[in-house]
Amino acid sequence: MTHSTQSTVSNLDVYGSVDQELSQIVAEMSVKQPSFLSLRRYIVAAALVFLGLYLTSLYSYQLFHAIAEIFGIVVAFAVFVVAWNCRRLTDSGYLLFIGIAFLFVGITDLAHVLTYHGMIVFSGVNENIATQFYIAARYVQSVSLLVAPLLVSRRLRIEFLFLGFATVTSVLLTFILLGFFPCGQFVDGTSTEFKAVSEYAISLIFLASIFTLLLKRKEFDSSVSQLLIASSGLAAGSELSSALYVGTYFFNLVGHFLRVLMSYLFYKALVEISLFKPYDMVFRNLKLSEEKFKLEVDKAQNYLDTVDAVLIALDVDGMITFVNRRGRELLGTRVGEALGKDWFDTYLPSEIQKDVKRRFQSLVKGRTAIPDLLFDRYETSIRDANGVERLIAWHNTVLKDEDGHIIGMLSSGSDVTERKSVERDTTRYTQLLEELVAERTRKLRQAERLAAIGELASMVGHDLRNPLQVIFTQLYLAKEYISAMPDAERAVLEKVGLAKMWESLGKQVEYMNKVVSDLQDYARPIEPKTVEVNLRDLVVDTLSSMTIPPNIKVSLMIDEKFHRVIIDPALMKRVFTNLISNGVQAMPDGGQLTVKASWAAETASIDFKDTGVGIPEENLDKLSQPLFTTKAKGQGLGLAVCRRIVEAHGGIIKVESKVKEGSTFTIKLPHERRKEGK
Amino acid sequence: MEKKRILVVDDDEEVCNSFKQLLELRGYSVDVAKTGREAIEKSNANFYNLALLDIRLPDMDGTELLTKMRDTIPKMVKIMVTGYPALDNVKDAINKGANGYIVKPAEIDELLRTVKEHLDRQDEERKYSEKKVAEFIESRYREDETKPTKN
Question: ipTM strictly over 0.90?
Fold first, then answer.
């Protein structure tokens, strides 16, 4: 029978187990005991067993009978053992009922075997008794099978069952031993009427048990109920064969073969499947609750799927054991696809894999900053379905089993990539704003400072006018006096260089006067009184009032149609003077000064271009700040005043410059509507 | 020829002195006044051909002084001297009878030229008006000559 054990192992696959875990066990077992029995081999094996039994029966019918019956008894006891040990696993009354029933059936059958004619165990016992035991056992068995399916969803008290079956069996055995039981066999070995009727009746009860089983088949695993039905059918056949036997050796033999087969199927239905498919076992009630459980799990999974957070569970090795829908969307995987993969190697950018894994390992080893607080928050980048890195904020909790051992980690993550980028934008805008504010503040301070300088300049200028006037006058007088001196006296003064001194003093005072008047110019509010002016004439006039060194060539490029602009000529002349003299001073070794005017839709532009030394970039910005100058002798108000004047006209002044190539100052003035027909 | 008389009005003593020295060198007779009040007193007591009036004085504005000085014959030439030319100042001064305007610190040549030009014009005008008076007298005389005398 060892072969059949192996065969059933492989046959489990035929039953189509859905339980992965079990099939895994089966697979492992199959590896250890390679399956070599296909259905054909199975039949061959059964045929060999039956041939063996048949040959045994030829040798000794008693031996054959004993083997066949003992097989049935062993199966009956095995069913009891299984039922007994499974009693706490199931609420179903079926297995327990059958198990206890079979215990007593087995006992009765044992009595049958032991009292069978030709057995030497109990000498002097009426052979009829063996038949009576047999019939009693079949009644109990068939009725049990008939009733048991009806009890499948009932909870039964084990002590009552024992008591019940013990009582019934005792009563039957007592009756038989005391001779109260109807006679089963005539002395000549042929059946009595009671025996024949009983066998038909028992066979009907077996068939009826198929009916009750079908009634309750939903409660049974399909393979179990099929086996049970087949088994009951065989039992019915066996009884029928026995009824027909009437002393015929062949029918007796077939009847016992059928009983062996029935016992085997019974064994398969209730023992083997119980052992190898403990969870979707004999009774579907376990499986049903498992399905219910599965439904609950599905429901839970649905809940987890509706959560708008990434949920990922890892085992202690970092292998993925669960991913919810949001997680699958993020990772771009299908259900189950990511399971069993190494989370860190598969989904984290390689540069952070190590760190995050170390962190995970210390977490699942229970090492956290605060003991007993086995969770953790952090942000990591992960690679999404498109290979794009996304920033996920994780909240991690360790998972523990019933005994408190850490078995993994559940991480819930939210995608903060957008939020982070918004934060970054906000930070950038804030910075920008701060910079703008700082810039404005700086400009405002500058303006305040300039206003203060202006006020001061005006005061200083006013206070200096009298001393300057006195110096001017005294110098003039001194020169007059000297020139009025007799030649001899004047020669003495000239000898000590006094005349030159006066001249030098005069120049310096002139310069001082210019500084003061520039300061006052700058401080003075500028209110242009605009009139229509011929630009070319104004430039020519400006040039004519200046001394241009002979090594500087001046060219005017002012279009005819450009003749009139609306400006304050006096103010603009000062601007021109300033810009031209700047250009001239920038070309100590001579060069080309170009004054060019051009006309655009909104503005008139006047360029003053020199080929001079140019202005270093770092000085360009400071150029029109008051008091900035690069000249050894210069107070730095010239351009500042120019700028103020141009701005008072609503225009702007720009400068472009390259060191050693020259500078171009451009005045852009908005032109008011020109008067037509003038 | 009689020296032209000039009154310099300025609260700065050095300015007064240096102008006095300068103008005297050019042959003018110069008096100085350091306040508006002193200027009025002096102009009442003496005749001046020309006055250089600082626009800001301790006791009054130069423009105010313009209106308070007595009219004379020939009319005194009044030239304003100011630190920085502001259009409002200039308008005000001219409306109140100023004949000229000098920005301080003034170029000495320019100052002297301005003074001389104004005095020359004053001379011209005086000569013109004297000539007119003479012509008038002469024409009246001739009228009397040609007319037969009525008993």
Answer: no
B15 contacts in chain A (CB < 8 Å) = 466, 469-470, 473
Domain assignment of residue B42, yes or no: yes
Q: Residue A448: how many CB atoms within 10 A of its CB?
A: 10
Architecture of the structural domain at A59-286:
Up-down Bundle (1.20)
Cβ atoms A165, A108 nearer than 8 A: no
B72 by DSSP, 3-state: which? coil
- Whole-number pLDDT of residue B85: 62
Q: Which of A469, A477, A480 sits opposite B15 (nearest CB)?
A: A469
C-alpha to C-alpha distance for A672 and A532, rounded to whole angstroms: 10
> Which residue among A465, A466, A477 places its CB closest to the CB of B22?
A477
Q: In one letter, which amino acid is A633? A: K
Closest in B10, B25, B105 to A468, CB measured? B105
Would you say residue B74 lies in a domain?
Answer: yes
Strand-by-strand arrangement of the B100-103 sheet = B29-33, B5-9, B50-54, B77-82, B100-103
CATH classification of A526-670, choosing from 3.30.565.10, 3.40.50.300, 3.20.20.300, 3.20.20.190?
3.30.565.10
| CB contacts, 8 Å: A465 with chain B | 83-84, 104-105
- B12·A480 Cβ contact <8 A: no
Helices (H) and strands (E) in chain A, counts: 22, 12
pTM of the predicted protein model = 0.41
Restricting to B residues 111-150, those with a Cβ less than 8 Å away from any Cβ of A are: none
Question: Mean pLDDT in each 10-residue stretch from start to end of chain A (678 residues)?
Answer: 39 41 45 51 83 83 84 88 78 81 90 77 67 86 88 81 90 82 59 78 90 84 82 86 69 80 83 62 56 75 80 86 84 78 83 81 68 60 77 82 80 82 85 87 79 75 85 88 86 83 84 78 76 85 86 83 77 88 87 86 85 81 59 61 84 85 88 45
- Domain of residue B141 covers 5-146
- What is the DSSP secondary-structure string of A641-655? HHHHHHHHTT-EEEE
B:27-46 residues touching chain A, CB 8 A cutoff: none
Residues from chain B contacting residue A468 (CB–CB below 8 Å) = 104-105
Nearest chain B residue to A509, by CA: B105
CATH of the domain at B26: 3.40.50.2300
Helix (H) or strand (E) holding B143: helix B108-146
Residue spans of the domains in chain A: they are 59-286, 307-415, 437-521, 526-670
Does residue B113 have a pLDDT over 90? Answer: yes
